[in-house]
Amino acid sequence: MSVLLSAQDLRLAFGGVKAADGINLDVMEREFLAIIGPNGAGKTTFINMTTGHLTPQGGSIRYEGKELLGMKPRAIVRLGIARSFQLPQLFTEHTVLENAAMAVAAREGAFSPFRPLLRPAFREEAEDLLNRFGLLPAADRRADALNEGTRKLTDIAMAVAMKPKLLLMDEPTSGVAAADKMAVVETLARVLRDAGVTAVFVEHDMDVVGRIADRVAVWGQGRIAALGPPGQILNDPVVQREVIGIRAGEVPHAAA
Amino acid sequence: MNARLEILAGILGAAVLVLLAYAAPWLRFVLTIALAKGIMVLGILLLLRAGQVSFGHAMYVAIAAYSVAFIAPHMREALLLLPLAAVISAAAGLLIGLFVMRYREIFFGMLNLALSMVFYSLLEKLYTVTHGTDGIRLPVPTFLGRELAGASYEWAVFALALVLAACFAVVVRIYLAAPLGQALAGIKTREARLEFMGVPGRFVLLAAYVLSALMAGCGGTIIALTSRHVTPALAYWTASGELVFIAILGGAGSVLGAFLGAVVYELTRVYAAANLADAWQLILGSVLLLVILFAPGGLFGIAQGLLRRRKAA
Amino acid sequence: MMAWLSDNGLLLGLAVLDGLASAASIFMVAVGLNLVFGVLRILNVAHGSLYAIGAYTAASITLFLTSHGLPVWLSFPALVVAAALVGVILGPLIERVLLKRVEKQEPVLQLLVTFALFMILEDVQKLIWGVQPVSNDTPMRLLGTIDVPFGADVIPFTAYQLFVLPGIALFTLVGLAWFMRRTLTGRVIVAVTTDREAATSQGIDSAKITMLTFTFGAMLAALGGALASPMSSMVPGVGASTIVLSFAVVATAGLGQVEGAAIAAVMIGLGRSIAVYLEPELEVVVPYLIMVLVLLVRPQGLFGVTETRRI
């Protein structure tokens, strides 16, 4: 397997808080890499830097050998890197179907002024996508009338609609009802594996990590504290104490 | 409302306007102005769809009207004056748009207002070029090279306005259903997402802005052809406010609402403005507040509601 | 250069003094606009109308004083009384009846509501004070003129414009900074401006603070108008030109910057008055030219800070 994304010595501080303090990470092609760690460790910051939302103060991020730093988010997207969000970023005046169709249209570069958004080709693809995520029943509901889990899935579906080579997901299962969680995760994993997508995801649920991750990176104070296969990392006593232990007493992230 | 019903309502509305113009000749002038304003308001609608409001769009109306006034002494063909003036207006929209596209909401609205005030002041102060508040009178334009006068000239301008209105209504309706138009609402609700889908929000808004300047230009040309007298008042903030008012009054959600609002507004103004000139803005402002607070769908929304109730009953 | 200066030096000096005086009055309006924006996140388009109403009210009070044979020096406190009246009557009314209703609405609707208010207030002025120019030069005449030495020449300049206006503006600037940093109310306003939710969760009555701030902002606008009223006569349309001018100041400085607004007001005031003496046609253009040039280089304004939205 070859390296798809390579981060070297990334540094970024907000005031005195070091969100990235020398991050070195290689993401291999077609792997599922989970990022775990306590809140404020800089997990989201890593995604934000990779997708062009934040610019690090030092270091480099190469994707297929191409430097990403200094590129705008929309230019990075066109290289085949899509992301989903911790707080779903949906077009709240559009329906779920229209949200998905917008993503399809965006990928096609077809921001044509005179053919409808819901032209047959786009509608079919959007419906097919929603079907794979089990979102079809909600297709005609407006995005501001959805529950948290559905919003989250729609958000991920929009990222998947971009047909990325690399997908970055920020807490894909937070807000999804516990009973549905594993089914959703299995579906998501299958969709992504079928499409040959490389995935990097921030995750707090260790069951989810154990189930689908190929490798796990542990974040701590802007550094990578440990990296390896889930079997090794999740059973590491230090990680169990520092990361998984902290989780039990921590305030749920979504409420912050 | 589905597309077929909308087309039907549009055709019916157009027929009523023609009948009115035929039955009461003095209404021809009023209705021509109303159609012109409806075309301008379509542009305001596009921007409102993106959650933006321009308090200075009358500037583009005036740019086109003055272009007509400057070109007409050399070339009087109305059907050439129209595209020329509209393109000049759109070009100005592109230039200014490149600057104001960096901003949203408050700054977007206020920068447009500030620029239009500057333009107004220049029209007023540069007397040697613009004749100040006296304005410029236009020679009678020709249509397809033919000299028209009196009623036939009025009919020609009215027909031109009606055709333009119909074309732009269709264009805007299609535009709004297309990805580029749908993305306007995306700017309002989640512009960041557009960027992360690889779509530049600024471009989406700029396209709508230039189209709105083009339509304002067409409306301005009709105004110039109808009144054959252009003055700086065309660019004053009250003229811009009028467009925003009509957009909200008619109903920001629909293309037909723009024309419904414009016709109702102009007819009312003809009767009321003369008697209530000193309090006209006061009345407009109060009605605007009432519509925003109590009938956010505007006249079109109210009409739809009535229609639905009748169906249900 | 020297020859030009000796020919035009006097004019230039006069322009500078004029510019500072107009900067002082526009600063008062801009700072009120900033303050209100900070707490309400609304740019009040009708803010310029409050300036105009403040000016007209000051003129009316002075007229009342002089026509009833009361002491003319009362025309000075009348300026402040006018501002206080306008602020206290219109401020809470506008905030409670209108702005509070649309608090949770889309930004564009909030903007439209203040625009509607602006339309209304512009005509209210016409209905009350008519369309003929109204002047209020009593305070200015009372203080007379002072000879300002300028190089070899001497410029006679009104003491009112030289001392009273800039003095009060400076007092406002310093007083506001002190108020915001040293008093409890000031700190609460800052807290609500920075993070409304956090402030509310700390037990701050943000609704009360909002009304208070809006009233205070309205008072500053009216004071700006009242102070400017002795310098030039009021005509319809003053409100419109004031709102765009004070917006230009706020945009040039950066939204929410108080000290920055003072500097931008001086830049724009000077630019405008120098234009009046050199190219009168361009008077109205210069402030916006300054604004556009600044914004082209720094989209967030001279002292503004860009915020990266959290996603």
UniProtKB/TrEMBL annotation, chain A:
Source species taxonomy: Bacteria, Pseudomonadati, Pseudomonadota, Alphaproteobacteria, Acetobacterales
Pfam families reported for this sequence: ABC_tran (PF00005)
Annotated SMART domains: AAA
Superkingdom of source: Bacteria
UniProt source species: Teichococcus aerophilus
Name under which the protein is recorded: ABC transporter ATP-binding protein
Occurrences of domain ABC transporter (ranges): 5-246
Keyword line: ATP-binding, Nucleotide-binding, Transport
Claim: Signal is one of the keywords in the record: no
Gene3D superfamilies hit by this protein: P-loop containing nucleotide triphosphate hydrolases
CDD domains to which the protein is assigned, alphabetical: ABC_Mj1267_LivG_branched
Listed GO MF terms: ATP binding
UniProtKB/TrEMBL annotation, chain B:
Main localization of the protein described in the UniProt heading: membrane
Keyword Secreted appears in the UniProt entry: no
Transmembrane annotation, as ranges: 7-23, 29-48, 55-72, 78-99, 106-123, 155-178, 199-223, 243-267, 279-303
Record InterPro entries: ABC_transp_permease, LivM-like
Source superkingdom: Bacteria
Keyword annotations from UniProtKB, A to Z: Cell membrane, Membrane, Transmembrane, Transmembrane helix
Subcellular location(s) per record: Cell membrane
Annotated membrane topology: Multi-pass membrane protein
Protein name: Branched-chain amino acid ABC transporter permease
The organism of origin for this protein: Teichococcus aerophilus
Lineage: Bacteria, Pseudomonadati, Pseudomonadota, Alphaproteobacteria, Acetobacterales
UniProtKB/TrEMBL annotation, chain C:
Compartments, record wording: Cell membrane
Presence of keyword Transcription: no
Signal peptide positions on this chain: none
Membrane spanning stretches: 20-43, 50-70, 76-99, 111-131, 159-179, 209-228, 260-278, 284-305
Membrane topology summary: Multi-pass membrane protein
InterPro entries: ABC_transp_permease, BCAA_transport_permease
Keywords: Amino-acid transport, Cell membrane, Membrane, Transmembrane, Transmembrane helix, Transport
Pfam families, sorted: BPD_transp_2 (PF02653)
Family stated for the protein in its record: Belongs to the binding-protein-dependent transport system permease family. LivHM subfamily.
Protein name: Branched-chain amino acid ABC transporter permease
